[in-house]
Design goal:
22 strands; single chain; 4-stranded antiparallel beta sheet; globular; Fumarylacetoacetate hydrolase, domain 2
Length: 297
């Protein structure tokens, strides 16, 4: 299934299930409330065949699937991106990167959905996109075993971890994480795709779980990046197991993969595309999920 949170022209918000070019409204105000209800997914499946409460996708605004996530963790799980980005800065690989799937917490108050205008951060001169896939947690759990982690995934969506590289450069010198370089905007969407819909793309399970899914980015209609989810070094089960160590993951928590190889300007170089400007339109596409599109304003 494809599940969404959307707003009607009248201003009401609903969770919904996508069917062709329509979205069928459910009784929940957002997808988060649907996932918290043990019967929510079953009700969504039943609604797929309904002919009532259907809205054209052209007449609604798709919000972030989870508009207000309890938490958002963003990992650093694609080796090619880590190596390339560090090489650009004249640095070698960190041996500890191969020991744990590290992450940082990012801001949950500035989350944008499909076609939502994203405000250009004031004072920034080196704005970047980051092409990522994210999983949404569907069950509460703590100290989750890698072998059981797949059962905690409600589904997947596309994530753009917008990055102010000039801010980030100063942040990182202070050894406390990205800080203001990342907290001004994160885009998620256009919807959540449940794990079962991607089963034919999956190979392996547990720590070896991978998905064959092309990931690409376009800037103002021109493709500038292409990679594949299959290239990820740490699987989502590994990320979930690490994130849940000593702490409770909650329904609706977002775990980002980190940037796929070539999935940002920092890695590609400004000779491929200059830093982003107001008016630029960034489209991130992941095979099996869809396209997440935003304009900078």
């Amino acid at each position: 299934m494809k599940l969404a949170t959307f707003r009607t022209s009248g201003g009401a918000t609903h969770a919904g299930v996508i069917r062709d070019d329509t979205v069928i409204a459910l009784k929940y105000p957002t997808l988060l409330e649907l996932l918290r209800d043990p019967a929510g997914l079953e009700q969504a499946r039943a609604a797929q065949s309904s002919h009532s409460n259907a809205h054209s996708l052209h007449e609604v605004a798709l919000l972030s699937p989870i508009p207000d996530p309890p938490t958002m963790r963003d990992f650093y799980a694609f080796e090619q991106h880590v190596k390339s980005a560090r090489t650009k800065r004249g640095l070698g690989m960190i041996p500890e990167w191969y020991e744990i799937p590290t992450f940082y917490f990012t801001n949950t108050s500035e989350v944008y959905g499909q076609d939502a205008p994203v405000p250009y951060p004031v004072g920034c001169h080196e704005l970047d996109f980051e092409l990522e896939i994210a999983c949404i947690i569907g069950r509460e759990g703590k100290d989750i075993a890698v072998e059981e982690a797949e059962d905690y995934v409600a589904g997947y969506t596309i994530m753009n971890d917008w990055s102010a590289r000039d801010f980030q450069r100063k942040d990182m010198k202070l050894n406390l994480g990205p800080g203001k370089g990342k907290d001004f905007a994160t885009s998620l969407g256009p919807w959540l795709v449940t794990s079962d819909e991607l089963a034919n793309r999956r190979t392996g399970s547990g720590a070896s779980e991978r998905y064959t899914m092309t990931m690409l980015a376009r800037a103002n209609g021109r493709e500038i990046s292409r990679g594949n989810f299959q290239q990820i070094y740490y699987s989502f089960p590994q990320m979930i197991a690490w994130a849940s160590r000593n702490v409770r993951l909650r329904v609706g928590d977002v775990l980002g993969s980190g940037t796929v190889g070539t999935g940002c300007i920092l890695e590609l170089g400004t000779e491929v595309h200059p830093w982003l400007q107001r008016g630029d339109i960034i489209e991130l596409e992941i095979e099996g999920i869809g396209v997440l599109r935003n304009k900078l304003v």
